[in-house]
Design a protein that fits this description.
38% of the residues lie in helices and 12% in strands. The chain is α/β, with parallel strands linked by helices. It has an eight-stranded parallel beta barrel, surrounded by four helices. The two termini are 20 Å apart. The relative contact order is 0.14.
């Protein structure tokens, strides 16, 4: 462990806050949502991403959307990533893409997300799959997910948007555990296996933390798919803390992904208190 952390400490000397997207839903959480963009800017970040920032409400009012966008504008930071509505995350929900009974609401949310993207220039939209649903088969949920993802992709296509799908850890009922699980659904969307038709603007969100925790071979996923990653998110393990706090070779993975053709963003989606969250960058 000491050797791994030491290597990370050496590698990270090349980085500054401007090299990363800051996830303002896992960090700066001591502050109200609309105060986080200014805090991110004060810490040196120029780009941010958020989970759905409206307290689990899929269709916030125009005033709420406006307040969020004003907070970004006044802080001078660019929104580059946004989750679609995922239910009540604090209550354990992990998405609505595969959830029967929420189809209309999810489609309405897609329109709101696309509107925010048009206003802010955001083009990356993360769609959480959702938990297993009692009384609904895995196949039925997968079929619905493919349909909803195609609809989401079509909603953000006019603004150059891409829908992201990721494996997630820490939720037993979340079916997508590995990159292969997510890529299987992505392939179905791209091949047109939905009534809504095919959509090519969907890609894997390579969250190195989630994949590592779930036992995925992250290095091999990078070798096989880095060029087509839609986005990268990082946190260290164990603990889901800042880079260098655990054992994952995050910077080596990032460097290898770029060598293989990844040209997108790298987002910090770890969890740590505001007072120490960016010490590793300050050093």
């Amino acid at each position: 462990m000491t050797e791994t952390v030491s290597a990370q400490q050496s590698d990270r000397l090349n980085f500054s806050p401007a090299d990363f997207v800051l996830n303002c839903s896992t960090l700066l959480t001591e502050l109200p949502v609309n105060e986080r963009p200014a805090a991110a800017a004060a810490a040196g970040f120029t780009e941010v991403e958020f989970w759905w920032p409206f307290d689990g409400e899929p269709t916030p009012s125009d005033a709420e959307v406006e307040e969020f966008i004003i907070a970004l504008d006044e802080a001078g930071v660019r929104l580059v990533g946004l989750n679609f509505w995922a239910g009540h995350m604090a209550g354990g929900d992990r998405g609505r893409v595969s959830t029967q009974g929420e189809e209309v609401t999810f489609k309405e949310n897609c329109a709101v997300a696309a509107k925010i993207g048009e206003r802010t220039g955001c083009t990356a939209f993360n769609a959480l799959y959702g938990l297993r649903q009692p009384g609904v088969s895995e196949q039925e949920q997968a079929d619905l997910a493919v349909e909803n993802l195609a609809i989401a992709a079509q909603a953000v296509a006019p603004i150059g948007g891409t829908v992201l799908l990721e494996p997630v850890s820490g939720a037993d009922g979340y079916p997508l555990k590995t990159a292969a699980d997510a890529l299987e659904i992505i392939d179905r969307v791209q091949s047109g296996d939905a009534k809504a038709g095919a959509a090519q603007n969907i890609a894997l969100l390579a969250d190195f933390y989630h994949m590592a925790v779930n036992g995925d071979d992250v290095a091999q996923v990078i070798e096989d798919h880095a060029k087509t990653f839609g986005h990268i998110q990082i946190a260290d393990n164990p603990g889901r803390g800042a880079p260098g706090s655990g054992e994952l070779p995050l910077f080596k993975w990032i460097a290898r992904a770029r060598q293989l053709g990844y040209t997108g963003k790298v987002a910090l989606e770890y969890k740590q208190d505001q007072n120490t969250a960016f010490d590793w960058l300050a050093k």
